[in-house]
Sequence to fold (489 residues):
Amino acid sequence: MPFQIEKSLFTVLNSRKQKMLNEIVLKYKDRVFNTAYRFIGDWQDANELTQETFITVYGSVGNFKNESALSAEIYRIAIKLCKNRLSSFETSSRQVGFGQKKTQGTITRGVPHKLLEKKEKEMAVQKALDSLPFDRKEVLILKDIEGLSYQEVAAVLLCELGAVKSSLKRARNELRIRLDGAQNG
Amino acid sequence: MAKNCLDIKEFMPDYIEDELSEIEMNEVEDHVKGCKPCEKELAALSMTAQLLKSLPRFMAPTGMLSNVKKELKARRSLFQRVYPVLKWSVVGLGLAAILYMMIEFGATNPLFPLLAAKFSINTGRAGAEQSLAILSEKENPGRRTTVKNKTNKIDETSQPLPALELANTDRSITAPKNPSSLEEKKTNAGVYALTGGNCAVTEPTEQVFNSLAAWESFFQKTFPEKKYTGDINFKESMLVAVFIGERSSAGYSVNITDVVFGKTKITVKYEEVKPTGPAASVLTSPYAVFAVRKSDLPVEFIKQ
Fold:
């Protein structure tokens, strides 16, 4: 009965894939979500993009030689999806002619002074980050926020180590200029 | 060798990441102590990196895994709905293509002579209506083909058209009674035989028909009471026709005994069969028409 064999094989492959997906989601969900949130700055969008990342990963699960290749692919997919989402924001805001993209609202009432200050600082950094070009933002998020090594960043961005270093330096400088500008202005 | 500001700036990102060797670290620190702009830049860079690193990390909302699975299921069910239809259409198309190729090329493929014979019978049913016999014949170029019309015994009577119809409606003649005879010839082309004793051609005539139009118009003149409904493929075949002219009694007939494909010409040999016993005194015009493999060579008719 060839169809039964086919069906059972399909089920086995499927269940193995499901198991791998479970492990991947549990291991990477926070990293992917945090990355997406730092790119987009919106909770709901970051949630959707994280889901979409894992759905995309599911298609090629089992094709990776090792963990680092898988990890690089997950980040790469997440970044690509964020980039698409941001460019669709830009297009829609240009079309409508108004508006910044949505940002997470902050509840300030009843929050101690020091915490408030920290929150404001964080918002300023996020704002400065949002204003950077995408290629600067991606290297800062991967290296400084996600804490990947130079090699890992190079693997995600598919570029040389030297290029990552120089790009990171420029990105940090630009971010500093924007932060200084925000403080002074 | 003391490094200049440019070199030190190159080292700064690695200094912040603590990825320099001890010597390089010392070089950066020594330089920065004596160079205010570099010190300022290093401090700013370090602070920026620190700021980013100190940003709080967000956890993914709860239920991420179940949401991903739900979404995957929703998308997969769409695929699963399409998949069986897609699979069976591909299988169906494949079978149709194989069948088409068998019909299209089977009849001309020397590998399937018996198959070709079957198809010739099936496709020749229209021709059978107008008293034709289809044998399975086709020869390879340069080979000699022998076609013997042994089974086409014509029941010659004074009835003009029924005789024509009775002549070769027996299907059994279409399949070789002895399969080995077919193998001996190693041929597999359809041969269309139309023989009889009554037609409008009263003068001895030997003719070749290369096109459907020519054959149809000739057919109409020769057999005014009948309509041509056969399906001779004039792309692959042509017709050789022998009319021996008017005879004074029934019992006469023509047999095409041999068709030889030579290098320069095609020879069609035929013989006239005379009545062996007493025959009805009626005017007849016996004829024989055969389909042979199409060729541009001249056709020579030889009466034996």
Chain B is about 45% helix and 20% strand. Strands of chain B lie at 133-138, 188-196, 205-209, 237-243, 253-261, 266-273, 287-293, 299-303. The longest strand of chain B covers residues 188-196. The mean pLDDT of chain B is 72.
